Amino acid sequence: MTSRYQEAHQRALNDPEAFWGEAARAIDWVRAPTRILERQADGTGRWFADGILNTCWNALDRHVEGGRADQAALIYDSPVTGVVQRFTYRELRDQVALFAGALVALGVVQGDRVVIYMPMVPEAAIAMLACARLGAIHSVVFGGFAAAELATRLDDARPTVVVSASCGIEVSRTIAYKPLLDEAIRLAQAKPRHCIVLQRPMLAATLEPGRDLDWADAVAAARPHDCVPVAATDPLYILYTSGTTGQPKGIVRDHGGHAVALRWSMDNIYAVAPGEVMFTASDVGWVVGHSYIVYAPLLAGATSVLYEGKPVGTPDAGAFWRVIAQHGVAVMFTAPTAFRAIKRDDPEGRLLAQYDLGRFRALFLAGERADPPTVEWAQDLLRVPVIDHWWQTETGWPIAANCMGLGLMPVKPGSPTVAVPGWDVCCLDAEGRPMAAGDVGALAIRLPLPPGALPTLWNAEARFRQAYLAAFPGYYQTGDAGFIDGDGYVHVMSRTDDIINVAGHRLSTGAMEEVLAGHPDVAECAVIGVADELKGQVPLGLLVLKSGARRSTDEVARDVVQLVRDRIGPVAAFKTAVVVQRLPKTRSGKILRGTMRAIADSQDYRMPATIDDPAALDEIRQALGRIGYARAPG
Ligand code: COA
Ligand code: AMP
């Protein structure tokens, strides 16, 4: 018998126009699309090209008009400030309309960019939705990035206005945001005309007269603004993510495909019904936060929890259980690292006994490989399905999942289950030929990609084609390696590039190497991602010093740690650098990062046939051994 999943998967592959045309009916259109999928000669496609809509209308106004005005849309739960604040759909719509008016008063028009650099406060979501209301393009920058990273994004996005806050709170530390913003604007070539700054009671920011406005004043003077109709193919947002260099990739998301795909995912992947509560413990600065804290729950008329806290320490490892119980959460979504942190602090899960999780139905995990011990621990404790699913900033929603709304399939530990309807996942060899079931290769998606996936990179169409479409003509290259087994289950093993995943945060080791190489005493360097029990991976730097270096090896190692923190940000979690005499290389001069990673993680590895000088590997093993890595020689 064909399962509901198989039926949907086949229909989406065989007749995507009919499948997504039907899904598009769940969205309110100013002009319904008639051209569902326009196929381009290179295999890519444009979704809903003649459709006109407004994403904010679909997220807020339609629910206010449709009977959900008094239902909670957003619950701000902040253990770090002791605040719980509920916004009904009407309240959120009104605040968003007012803030949209404030942006318009500063000259923001459709197509303008607005950079949002904020902690996890409801105003961040309000600012995003206000941009969507105006057809302005938001670009949210995660608060853990340093001023230089923000400056790079300002220069690429060239925003009219930046929205920020006086501070964020990291457990019990107050982190001043405004000095970072001021420094970023100083560094950037593209200066925003204005900044709107939310003054939080814990710390007041100094405002620059003429340029900066207090959020409260801007809103007090504003008139509510209506939804502006935009083309389905117009950009809703740009979200920068790590590429292989210090220049991040500006992932573009369009309005129409995004709204249709996310709305569909709420029923079919997450099985969250209108009126139910979804809790995504991530950050609005990441794609998971964009999609499942802000847009998808609201598009579905559900309630979203916006949580300003950590899995542990705010106040303890029972924090998530408290939120689930207090707000009647049906479905939660976070990264495996959060559960590893909880397990570390409360291995028996004793804190759970204090809470009633009666309405809790499922836990979804993504952002990094879900290690089977963590999944099993969570499942034994919570006694609900724990669903690993695979996706990327580029895709905007899951590529592979156990689609709860289409009937759960048997779980294979370590696999995010099967391709989600709409995604034609393939495993290819280096020449682009399909691999046999079970053989490891490059995971790729046959074009066209479904609605919601990136149509391009901001200001960088050529880079988009080069990075994603060039390697395998007719396919999107995910950058992940893995295999598809005989039952069609996808197994995601590792990245094929130099991107690492640190506590579910995506970072580029190439970008860190650029920072290390900038130290005057560093001749050569490599940054590798090594296994970490809590964060999955952490970066580790290997440095070769110039002869006649002015500072000692210890000093340079300390300097570069500080440099990465200053240039990229604390989120990089770059805490260890070690000075070595030389780096192992191939005869053509390529640094053997993969082999060094295997040595650091005490894994078996094969001596590369092309290695220039095998003794260099022994030196690396000894150096890593001195700092606690490379415990068992490979
Ligand atoms: N603003 C400023 N600084 C921030 C920040 C923000 N929004 N977010 C993180 N940082 C800082 C932290 O304070 C920390 O600084 P430190 O080096 O001075 O301690 C650093 O960046 C690293 O932060 P984080 O990755 O959060 O590590 P942690 O050690 O503080 O906490 C976990 C570890 C596992 C508890 C934490 O990573 C976590 O909750 N992860 C959840 C997963 C997640 O949200 N993933 C997103 C994709 S789904
Ligand atoms: P990001 O763009 O930050 O969402 O990171 C995307 C990358 O995280 C993917 O390319 C994978 O390498 C990794 N990733 C995300 N989800 C999973 C998962 N469920 N299993 C394995 N890797 C994952």
TrEMBL record:
Residues 67-447 form the AMP-dependent synthetase/ligase domain. One of its GO terms (cellular component) is intracellular organelle lumen. This is Propionyl-CoA synthetase. Residues 5-59 form the Acetyl-coenzyme A synthetase N-terminal domain. Belongs to the ATP-dependent AMP-binding enzyme family. CDD domains: PrpE. One of its GO terms (molecular function) is propionate-CoA ligase activity. Residues 512-590 form the AMP-binding enzyme C-terminal domain.
